[in-house]
Each structure stands twice: as structure tokens, then as C-alpha cells.
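Researcher: Please predict.
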Amino acid sequence: MNENVERHDLRISKTNEKLRDALGSLMEERPYDDITVIDICERANVRRATFYRHFSDKHDFLTHTITAIADDMSHAAHEKYGNMGLCEYIIGYVKEVFAFIQEKKRLFDNVLSSTAIYRVYEISLKTTQKLLMGNFDDADVNGTLAAGTKVAASAFINGGIAHMVINFFLSKDNRVEEFFAELRRILEKLFSE
């Protein structure tokens, strides 16, 4: 790769990181609906023209941000739990989600109280669906799933887990161990022969 392209890519990455950090800190302070592109750019010390060179609006940027966060969690889960079997991998991924939500509690509360929740939910579902589909390739080989059920199985599991997580946090439940014990029981029943 040519040095100018590498330098350009590095600048884009650093700018995107500054913008993501700015959006995150703003969302810890107030709901997404109350944040403007100007707010994001001022907090990040990035010109609006630069923002609009890469994103059409704040919703497009939110999509980019959520996708990047979900990808990071996916990679972290793969590194930690990728060799432990499908059930453990799914539980590990959900643990990564829980850790992120608990670390960013105020941000998550503001997302839940804004229109961003629908976008976050939709993008999270797409990202985890892709993640599950990739991991189900191995499940086909070892006989955990019947041939041809990957799409249906991953959609079913993905939707169920997403609803469990959202309901857990909406209910303000603090029994994390019980949540993961129940998730484990469900997954073990699904994957039992």
C-alpha cells in the first residue's frame, strides 16, 4: 500500500474515532434525539464538511458507529470464546454486550429513551445475525444443526436473545447470574440432540 493512502486511511480512522467518542460522550449527557451534527463536530473538533464527506447525516453516522462497536464485540467474543463451542460462544458474546452496556450505562439509558433504540436494535440484529451465521458453519460440520437451518436458527436465536437482553435492562433487573443461567438452559436445550 502506498504511503499516502496509508496516511489518508489513518487520518480517516482517527477522525472517525474522534467523532465516535464525541457522540458517545454526548449520548451520556442527553438523548440521541437532542444531539445535532454540529454538537458532534464541535465536541470532536472536526469540521462539518469533513463529517459530511463521510456521512449523510447523524443517523448514517450512528449506523456506522453501532456497526463498529458490534464488530469490536464480535471480535472480542471470538478471541475469548471462539474455541469453546457454539453455546459458550453465544453466551460469551452476550457477556461482551452486557459488559459494554454496564460500562456505558448512562449512554444506554439515553438510547432506550430515544428514537435511536430502533436503529440500535436493527443494526445490532443484523450484525449478530451475520456473526451467528459465520459460527453456524462449524455447527453444520459437527452435527449441531441440521443442514439448511442456519438462516432460520440464527434468526430465531438472535431475536430471542435480543429480546431477553432488552427486557432484562428495561426491567432494571440486577440478577445477571440468573439471566445467564437461563440463557444457558435455553441454548443447551436448543443444541441438544
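Model: The mean pLDDT is 82.
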